[in-house]
Amino acid sequence: SLSHSPVFQAALSWLNTEAVGLSLELEGLTIEGVDAGQAAAKFDLTLELRETSEGLAGSLDYATALFDRETIERYLGYLQRLLKAMVENDSQEVSQIGLLDEGERAQLLESWNETKAAYPDASTIHGLFEAQVRRTPEAIAVEHEGRQVSYAELNARANRVAHALIGLGVGPDARVGLCVERSVELVVGLLGILKAGGGYVPLDPSYPQDRLAYMLEDSAPVAVLTQGLVREQLGMLSVPVLDLDGPQEDAEHDPQVTGLEPHHLAYVIYTSGSTGRPKGVMNEHRGVVNRLWWAQQTYRLDASDRVLQKTPFGFDVSVWELFWPLLAGARLVMARPEGHKDPAYLAATIEQAGITTLHFVPSMLQLFLDQVEAGRC
């Protein structure tokens, strides 16, 4: 913040002089000095102390651009408790003096840790999706550039992919690469991998080939799902490749994977690699279900909602965009590939598709709102 004092931020001033008051008496008139206070803070914090006949007196000046009154009053409480403890025992170490009052201690140790909440901890992501399919089989689940797929059709297509993957040896904690552009097939592939018991590894076809090659080598997938349009991005592969644009298995029933539990792998998302090589972060079903359940309890979706999926599926925000609406009976509207880079397109899509819910990180939201077209949303 530019409000910080540039050279140093905190000052302690000891006034080793007695406070002298101004008093002047004239016939019929008494004049007394008035403390006008500090008009402006010179530094972030300035503690001014002086000794009086009654003890220590002082004041704490602060920059209002950096601190509010409540924070400063809390700081003064810390100082008072520190001084009191020093008077009571001048041989104790300062580091051993407790600064928090009972209310603050209870807040830190108890109130802020009362986070346990009930959620379907025995469920998997795809298990909750299948339950929604049974509730609203004919409702539209996914929409992409004029194409609509019902919950029943989406489930059947994902099941065909799942059975094919099981035939290739995919099971609990097995990793399956997924290199697909944003489309209905992306959702089919994600659900198919989860239904087979595997964890998906997003391989964004817009990534450089060397990054994709590293992710494939590091994650060691059992198989890879892709589309004909982006297959060449992956180069030569030593594992089976399944083309989502091609024909699939005939089996459409929900697969029952033996031993699959909520603690098994759901996906592996790689970091940006800005501080070195990208690192794969593994997440389990139960963690994702917990997050999605919280979202549904806090910002409830229903069949009337339309959620825009715009985040590349190599980023964790995509997880909430993709699965949350499908567990709540809402409609998932897929933006076109690379559409997330075009604020005008996003604004038009939000308006035309009747989007009710979307997810932005603050920096991206500000960029979006800066566009003229955003005013229509």
Summarize the structure in words.
There is one protein chain. The chain is elongated. α8 (317-328) links the parallel β14 (306-309) and β15 (331-334). The chain is of the alpha/beta class and 377 residues long. It is built from 10 helices and 15 strands. Strands 7-6-15-14 form a 4-stranded mixed sheet. Strands 9-8-10-11 form a 4-stranded parallel sheet, with helices on one face. The chain has 2 domains: 10-112, Nonribosomal peptide synthetase, condensation domain (Chloramphenicol Acetyltransferase, 2-Layer Sandwich); 125-376, ANL, N-terminal domain (Rossmann fold), CATH 3.40.50.
Mean pLDDT: 90
Any idea how many domains? Answer: 2
Question: What structural category characterises the helix and strand content?
Answer: alpha/beta
The CATH level-2 architecture of the largest domain is identified as 3-Layer(aba) Sandwich
Number of strands: 15
The CATH topology of the largest domain corresponds to: Rossmann fold
What Rg is obtained from the alpha carbons, in whole angstroms? 31 Å
> What does the oligomeric state look like here?
single chain
List descriptors.
33% helix; catalytic activity; 15 strands; AMP-binding_CS; Chloramphenicol Acetyltransferase; 377 residues; AMP-dep_synth/lig_dom; 2 domains; 10 helices
Question: Quick recap of the structure?
Answer:
The chain is α/β, with parallel strands linked by helices and 377 residues long. It has 10 helices and 15 strands. The strands form 5 sheets. The protein has a 4-stranded mixed sheet. The chain has a 4-stranded parallel sheet with strand order 9-8-10-11, with helices on one face. It has a 3-stranded mixed sheet with strand order 1-4-5, with no helix packed on it.
